[in-house]
Amino acid sequence: MIAQSLFVGEYTRLAPIDPDRDAAAESTWTHNPDYARRISRQNYRPLAVFEIKKIYGDMLKRLDEYAACYPFAIRRRADDVLLGSCRIENIQWSHGNALLSHYLGHPGAKVEEWLESLQLITAYAFGELGLNRLTFLICENEKELAGYLGKVGFIPEVRQREMHYRDGQYFDGIRYGILYQDWIAARRD
Amino acid sequence: MSNNIFCGELVRLEILDPERDAVFFHQWAHDSEYLRLLDSNPAFPWPPKLTKDFLEKNFDQMHAFLIRALVDDRAIGMVNLNDVSPGSFNCWVGIGIGERSVWGQGYGTDTMRVILRYAFNELNLHRVTLDVFEYNERAIRSYEKCGFKVEGRERQWLRRDGKYHDLIFMGILQEEWRKHQLNVGVKAK
User: Fold this and answer.
1) What is the extent of the structural domain holding A156?
2) Model's pTM, two decimal places?
């Protein structure tokens, strides 16, 4: 059990964040609003390289000072290419809950890379951090992501009507959740 | 109704002054039931200095008001709109009636009506969002009176006294609020 890596899967690995190496790629990906929204909830716009470095600096500060944010880069195992990022944040230790954010910005990311990296970070939250539940926020138009979440064991819990505005129209925000017991059951299946 | 948009039938809202008002927060923070209705952070009687520092640090991210009862101008609680920024169309509202002698007398509901009027008529927001612990039934009834609709619940979000409790999400759209105002007016006649 202990010998099984928390960070390395068959196709992907959860790697330390490295803003000096990766911020330029992430800046490019933030031209996709879905990715930008996951890097910064304050900005629905592309982010400059220096802004991404600052955001990651703040995340590391929150990890160091409050143990409240665990950010990872997601890399393809075969060639070490950056695929995306994920993090567990807003951790409330007394209640065992946290927010999970996960997104692959690389346009060539494959389904199995999405799924495996999502499984890795979810397993980290429950198996290592000892949390009881995770929340994952998506926009209703993110159908593929919703499918990945369902496969890992997340279920939609809240539909916040007209929470997002894209391309001239409103979309609902959907809050997905997974409990520790759901995760155990999904692994058995 | 007064021309003062920050004045209701029972309360008036006054811009929060961290230096002056931290003492009220400190007084209310001795009431653990109030704290456990208000917030998910561990209940703790924060000293006035830390409260003042917190309010000042976060002041520009919220529109924060002290609630005063019109009948005697007593400070009875606070209300704030979070995540309001230029271009935002949603915000989160938080409300706390710290003065327990006025609980159940409509002060919270009147406050919410005033802050919704400000959010929709002045800030022109598209929607207002809140979350509330499932055991806070009085608050849920008050929010429904103001026109909020339940949009779902995050399961086992809060752990208190060894038991899990759900977090309920509610929202109101500007068009719903306007219809609700008409209905309330008709009923009043």
Assistant:
1) 12-188
2) 0.93
